Amino acid sequence: MAPIKDPLIIHLSPFFSPNIGGVETYLDDLTSIISKNHLTQTVVTYSPLTSSITARFYTHNQKSKITIFRFPHLGGNLFHRLEKKPFLNFLYLTPYLFIVSFFITLFKLRRNIVFHAHGLNSAFAGYLLKFIFHRPLIVNIYSSYDSVPFSPFFLRIIRMVLNQADYILTQSHDSLGLLKSIGIDPHKLDLYRHWINLSRFKPLSPSKIPHNILFIGRLIPQKGVRIVLKLAQIFPQLNFLIVGKGPDYQKALEISKILKNLKLFGEISYHDLHHYYQMADVFLFPSLYAEGWGRTAMEAVACGLPVLGSNLGAIPENLDPSVSILFKPTFNNFKTQITKLLTTPKKYSKLQKNCRPYALKYFSSKNFTNLKNIYLSTLAS
User: Fold this and answer.
1) The Glycosyl transferase family domain covers which part of the protein (predicted)?
2) CA–CA gap between residue 339 and residue 341 (Å, rounded)
């Protein structure tokens, strides 16, 4: 394919680093690998929405050809309170993201632009930008949304918006099936896999039996962190390591003052996150809702950690029984499975040995190839 003249990818996302989360870490890897492929990028996003970390309004890296605009938002934990209220969440995030993106695009109209919207809120903004500027639109869907109470009216709007995109990318058959069921054109849908930095996320010295149990995620009830707190109380011989912050952090902090085997690390920069996986022996993934993919589980497996986790959503597509034990995410089920790992070291050892080869096979940067081809074909059209 001939070189594309003056290409520009404009990423639209409410979430971007240094905000902490699965989408943010994926976008870190995505923008990094796009830069290595010599494509110019602009990111339009908010200042961290779910993290207390601050970031500069504007950053530009000439070497990596990426510019980031971060705009302020209202409310500390307002996003968490609106997560299960789609319309209010939409009003909170989307109009301002669209307005800012509109003016940024005005100054770049001479470029060969493709809009890449990350998540449903960004898709609405991307839909309007595509309509106004007649530039192609790619949409990434990161969640299955099967537990979100969309009204019939809102579903019609979602269907209208997504069917105007040129490509809709999702990571799981679970999400793919849901999108088809609400009337999304199947010809615009495409499956893809995430990838991770396997040179950073790698194992250190393996343990023969588990001692350190790790949880990484937002400290909210839906992520199952309260299960982890209860487990720490009944397994005093194990260390429970929790990385992340959120509304349940204060509750976890109070319990950690009583339990010596419960250690809280708060928010950790993504660039340091691999060290915490390397401190652990088992990864807990107790999400109580259908995760769209489960990136932390990928990072854990790459670091040699077997996963005990939820069988909801796309997790069973991401992991198989050679590296994980998946089940309905209840406290009793986690208690049972941890006990089995402690009493059957051969089972634990087998899972552990399978982890790194599994990650090398399924989570490498080769997974970017399909998305790269989509970028190039869309920019060339």
Assistant:
1) 212-355
2) 5
